[in-house]
Amino acid sequence: MAYTGLGRSGGPTIGQNSKGGSGRQLIVCCAASLVMFTASCRMGSSSPLEAVRSAFTVVTTPVRYIGATVSVPFQGLGNVFANLTSDQESLSDLKAENERLQARNAELEESEQTAKRLQDLLNLKDSYSLQSTGARIISASTDSWSSTVTINSGSASGLTVGMPVMASNGVIGQIVECGATSSTVRLLTDENSSVSAMIQSSRAQGMLKGSATGQVTLDMIASDQEVSVGDVVVTSGLGGVFPKGLPLGKVTNVEKAAGSLYLQITVEIFAGTENFEEVLVITSLTEGQEATAEDISDADAQDTSKVVSSTSDAAADDTTDADASTDGE
């Protein structure tokens, strides 16, 4: 009977003993761990357990380092896999956000450039004490025989024909047509443009003229005047239209033809309209902006000098011809 009880029904008895043994082992291990932890805390770094732990750390460090190195590529692959498995909606949202930020950045950059141009115009207005009003270039000439631009201000804003127009670094031209809400500005490069001008350093006075090719020249400067490449050309104020001293351009070439009364001077204009959108229209002249009596006297003296020089040259030619005729007889 006892032996038979250990048959089919004995299995559970053996399993129960095995489970009980495992439980006792767990309790023993926990108790041993608690004892070792307590001993380690009380004995500090001088305990044998601490020495064993340190030795174990030294031995296992290379293994942990190798494991970390080996796991790096798998971490990268995990990131790639995560990106590849991102849903299409998230990617579309990111793309839309990126486009929005790019558009906002372009908008801010444009605003910054506009603010800089306007500040340059304000600085110009303050520097020359100009009575002026602002305007914007809205179009350029569409034909090949004129150089003009259209601005978005006209007679309704107090503008009239003849008023000078400036960009932030110099004169660009003069109003030649004026409507209620827009005006046409003839540029300095136009072949019909003519502005009283002078060399800033020597005060030699002449006329700044455009041409059909767009080349700008400073005419009527006597050949005995001192003009050099790089000299700045400014408005002379003669005629009472342009304020005196506004920048026009710089001399790029000077030639003196044999027997000519005038220098051939080429000028590069400072203000090209292709780089500007906002302009100042000078509405009136203030005190000190017109040519003085001395300026007018100097201009007359230069004209007189030109006439005298021309008369002298003609007389010299007549004398030469007379001498030649006498020698022939």
Describe the structure.
The chain is α+β, with helices and mostly antiparallel strands and 329 residues long. Helices cover 46% and strands 22% of the residues. It is built from five helices and twelve strands. The strands form two sheets. A six-stranded antiparallel barrel has the order 1-2-5-4-3-12. The protein has a six-stranded antiparallel beta barrel with strand order 6-7-8-11-10-9. The longest helix is centred in the N-terminal third of the chain and has 41 residues, at 88-128. Residues 1-12 have low confidence and may be disordered.
Arrangement of strands in the largest sheet: 1-2-5-4-3-12
**For the terminal residues, how far apart are their CA atoms?**
179 Å
Helix content: 40-55%
Q: Oligomeric form of this entry?
A: single chain
Give a count of the beta strands, DSSP E runs of length 2 or more.
Answer: 12
Order of helices and strands: HHHHEEEEEEEEEEEEH
| Radius of gyration, CA atoms, in whole angstroms | 47 Å
Uncertain spans:
1-12
Mean pLDDT: 79
The helix tally amounts to 5
The profile of the biggest β sheet is: 6 strands, antiparallel, barrel
Helix/strand-derived category reads alpha+beta
Strand content: 15-25%
Topology at a glance:
Blueprint: H1 2-5, H2 10-43, H3 48-84, H4 88-128, E1 131-140, E2 148-151, E3 164-167, E4 170-178, E5 183-187, E6 194-199, E7 205-209, E8 216-219, E9 232-235, E10 247-255, E11 264-269, E12 278-284, H5 293-328
Brief summary:
The protein is an alpha+beta fold and 329 residues long. The protein is built from five helices and twelve strands. The strands form two sheets. It has a six-stranded antiparallel β-barrel.
